[in-house]
Automatic annotation (TrEMBL):
Its cofactor is [4Fe-4S] cluster; Mg(2+); S-adenosyl-L-methionine. Its EC number is 4.3.99.3. [4Fe-4S] cluster binds at residues 46, 50, 53. Mg(2+) binds at residue 55. The keyword Cytoplasm does not apply. One of its GO terms (biological process) is tRNA queuosine(34) biosynthetic process. Belongs to the radical SAM superfamily. 7-carboxy-7-deazaguanine synthase family. Residues 33-238 form the Radical SAM core domain. The gene is queE. PROSITE patterns: RADICAL_SAM. One of its GO terms (molecular function) is magnesium ion binding. This is 7-carboxy-7-deazaguanine synthase.
Length: 242
């Protein structure tokens, strides 16, 4: 047996995550679990740079100081924080949390063993490993459309979308900011067999969300999609940690 093979696996106290913020209990604001009580683990870092991103403090180090907005925490510390709250649903988001999938997996395994339900919010550009898939109840996959300003080759990764669809645990949630986004969404759905589909309006202020919901209602019904509000924005506006 080699020395490497004999080395013990790192413990949860040794494995670390780059974390932007931990918050809750609050309410899941989007998608099929909207309105449910949840705690959030928001991880740092993203592989995209959407122009309308509502959490740029997780990745835009030209505008935000990583020393202020990001910290390295042991998985055990994150786990202890979550288990100290009597909340069944844990939402892991970002940034793009699957950038850290190898270090995220031990946290998900421990949470699943403790009976917590786990949702991961992802932009759909990174395929999750099998060990992580086993622990997760749902992947809320949010492929970015042209209005994001990100080139299509970076934001649409066919192999990753197909892998996420193949988990049987994915819903596909699209942010709509302009009418042309609806046509692109319909094309992506047809190309990759994405289902179920949820659409929601872009906006970080309650009035914008309400206006967007009204504009999206009829197209959503016509296409057979589902409509999601941004409940946290309607209740708390653009307040962080809610």
């Amino acid at each position: 047996m080699t020395a490497a093979a004999a080395a013990p696996a790192p413990t949860n106290a040794e494995v670390t995550l780059r974390v932007a913020e931990l918050f809750g209990p609050t309410l899941q604001g989007e998608g099929p679990s909207a309105g449910q009580r949840a705690v959030f683990v928001r991880l740092s870092g993203c592989n995209l740079d959407c122009g309308w991103c509502d959490t740029p403090y997780t990745w835009d180090w030209a505008r935000f100081d990583p020393a202020q907005e990001s910290r390295t925490l042991p998985v055990q510390a994150v786990l202890d924080w979550i288990l100290g709250r009597d909340t069944d649903l844990v939402v892991i988001t970002g940034g793009e949390p699957l950038i850290q999938h190898a270090r995220l997996t031990p946290l998900a395994q421990a949470l699943a063993a403790a009976g917590r339900r786990i949702e991961i919010e992802t932009n759909g550009t990174i395929a999750p490993p099998d060990r992580l898939i086993e622990c997760v109840e749902r992947f809320n996959v949010s492929p970015k459309l042209g209005g994001s300003g990100v080139p299509i080759g970076r934001r649409i990764r066919p192999a990753a979308l197909e892998a996420l669809r193949g988990t049987g645990k994915a819903v596909f949630k699209f942010v709509i900011g302009a009418p042309e986004d609806l046509a692109e969404l319909a094309d992506l759905q047809a190309r990759f067999g994405l289902a179920p589909v949820w659409v929601m309006p872009q906006g970080t202020h309650p009035a914008d969300v309400v206006e967007g919901l009204r504009a999206l209602a009829e197209p959503t019904l016509a296409h057979g999609w589902n409509l999601s509000s941004r409940l946290h924005v309607l209740v708390w506006g653009d307040q962080r940690g809610r």
